[in-house]
Amino acid sequence: MLRKWLLLLLVIGLAACSTSSPPGKPGGGPRDTGTPNALPAWGQQELGDTLAALKQSCKAIAKKPGWADVCRQADGISNENAPAVRQFFENRFAAWKVNDGSRDSGLITGYYEPLLSGSRMRSARTPWPVYGIPADFYSVDVPQAARGKSSLMARRSGPNRLTLSPTGDIEVRPADFPADARGTRLKGRLDGKRLLPYYTRAEINQGKGVANAPILAWVEDPVELFFLQVQGSGRIQLDDGSFVHIGYAEQNGYGYQSIGKWLVDKGELTMSNASMQGIKDWLARNPQRQQELFAVNPSYVFFKTLPGDNGGPVGALGVPLTGGYSIAVDPRYIPLGAPVYLVTTWPHSSQPLARLVHAQDTGSAIKGAVRADFFWGYGTEAGMYAGRMKQQGNLWMLLPKGMNPSQAL
């Protein structure tokens, strides 16, 4: 997943996440609102780029029930044939209004793929390492039925992986791990024959655990490196002008804590200026407190090198994201791969932003039915928009006609 851990622009995190009931429960399900041409500002949409993003989704969903014919037809339409593209979406899809009980609007944030300057070698200019997965890092899946047990046994099943096994020789105690990690995939390090939680961000920054981690590159700016971890993927431009494309590989097992919210709670920033840009400005004024602020968030992301440097990052759906046309959603409510009609406003603005996008990613902070993270793309301008986006918005999922949301999920 993007993850998709993650994952999402998670720095802000100032609005409470939704606690929706899953679809199908009283007060919770999406409402059938008919064909897409009844949606707000639908007639103003240029749909060629969104068809291209749907074709990406089809690489992952074409074999799922109900999607084969739609994907086959999409593949036969030119993105440049505007009338045919519009007719395709209007004839083949029904729109379902997503709601959260009595609420049909929710929080829309943004994320992007950052660009950092770096080198293959450590230097005075590039002293900050970008780590791959450490050799002493292990994760193990703990199913629902095992969550309350005091002790479990596991065995090594591959690089950095354990598998629960009654004949295993490694002890796992779920209570040892952070509360927000219990009952999911536990992540840690071996201490003899026992799995303990992995090191926190503060401990890793002190050098713990990473002496045996591969270093993918060295970068100039620790602030940009922190935000690279928040975003989950990015590009590093090397001394010779070439690029290294990196993406999320693993995460140390601690829940994300918002440094923006911490600054607001401490009275250092107001909610209105606790954007990514506002946080960077605060760090520029308070460089001596940089590590204090970073340590607020114990979560730490390890990366892997991605092939090529031209495509977008790969989201939880397993396909490259498209800048301006991909979103992260909570897949309990919106199926990955589905087109989603988003109606919100541009960051720090009342100017309408209505667009047909695609659910291609997830994120640890993206919880609830009417909740999305909008992928702005790559580079400085995308980062500016992503860092400022914290809007209210509405969502309609588009499903092939004849398919209802319970069948899609």
End-to-end gap: 17 Å
Computed CA radius of gyration, to the nearest angstrom: 22 Å
What is the name of the CATH topology of the largest domain? Barwin-like endoglucanases
Helix content: 10-25%
According to CATH, the homologous superfamily of the largest domain is: RlpA-like domain
Backbone shape? globular
Order of SSEs: EHHHEEEEEEEEEEHEHEEHHHEEEEEHEH
Q: With helices defined by DSSP (H or I, 4 residues minimum), what is the helix count?
A: 10
The number of distinct β-strands equals 20
CATH arch. level architecture of the largest domain:
Beta Barrel
What is the CATH class of the largest domain?
Mainly Beta
SSE-based structural type: alpha+beta
Q: Kindly give the count of domains.
A: 3
Percent strand: 25-35%
Major sheet summary line: 6 strands, mixed, barrel
EC number: 4.2.2.n1
Domain Lytic transglycosylase MltA: 115-304
Protein name: peptidoglycan lytic exotransglycosylase
Keywords: Cell wall biogenesis/degradation, Lyase, Signal
